[in-house]
Specification:
57% of the residues lie in helices and 14% in strands. The chain has 201 residues and is an alpha/beta fold. The chain has a five-stranded mixed beta sheet with strand order 2-1-3-5-4, with helices on both faces. It is elongated, with a radius of gyration of 23 Å.
């Protein structure tokens, strides 16, 4: 099939095909890790037999081979369950922003701080798929003054896929609504469009 970036080229990418390609990537990862585990298990079993002299594979050795083969697959599936919803949400948000705003529009991405109190991993994935750019704001800086500063510098939207963090801050949601209006909302993302004027009283 076509690579993921090719599926999303042009102004009207197909989100279903893109989502299918993303799932395929994680499926490939699962198979690769399972193959790695099986190869490692066979190697270890072979080394053990070589040290003790050739002989039939015992039930214990067979169990070791089985466990070493399935552990990477289970780990890959756990990673898939964790990351696929996250990155598909970012993909969906990015494609929606493509529909709503011209390319190179400035915006704000709300992001979750994973390692309290200050560490976070900025993820410009939404900017990439929407062909926009701007600022990534961690949730510890969800404040009115942050919005005012970035809107004054040209930000035209706020978008996030970290819905739980946003819903835990109703005060910040009110600040978003004072400065603009809801442009799009789905279970895995939300987008606000900012007015060009000052915040409403």
């Amino acid at each position: 099939g076509r690579p993921l970036h090719a599926l999303l080229s042009g102004r009207n990418p197909d989100p279903e095909r893109a989502a299918s390609a993303a799932r395929h990537l994680f499926g490939t990862l699962s198979l690769a890790l399972a193959g790695w585990g099986a190869a490692l298990a066979v190697l270890l079993a072979g080394l053990r037999r070589a040290r003790r002299g050739a002989g039939p594979l015992t039930a214990g050795a067979a169990l070791v081979v089985l466990l070493l083969s399935t552990w990477p697959l289970a780990s890959a599936q756990a990673l898939r369950k964790l990351y696929v919803p996250t990155y598909l949400g970012q993909l969906h948000a990015g494609l929606k922003l493509r529909e709503l705003f011209p390319r190179r529009t400035l915006g704000i991405l709300g992001h979750q701080v994973y390692h309290r109190p200050t560490g976070y991993d900025p993820e410009p994935v939404i900017f990439y798929w929407s062909d926009t750019h701007g600022w990534i704001v961690p949730d510890i800086h969800y404040e009115a003054r942050t919005l005012d500063s970035l809107i004054a510098r040209g930000a035209r939207f706020f978008a996030t896929t970290h819905m739980e963090r946003l819903e835990a801050r109703p005060d910040f949601v009110r600040e978003l609504e004072r400065r603009g209006k809801l442009a799009a909302r789905e279970p895995d993302y939300v987008i606000y469009r900012f007015d060009r004027g000052p915040a409403a009283p």
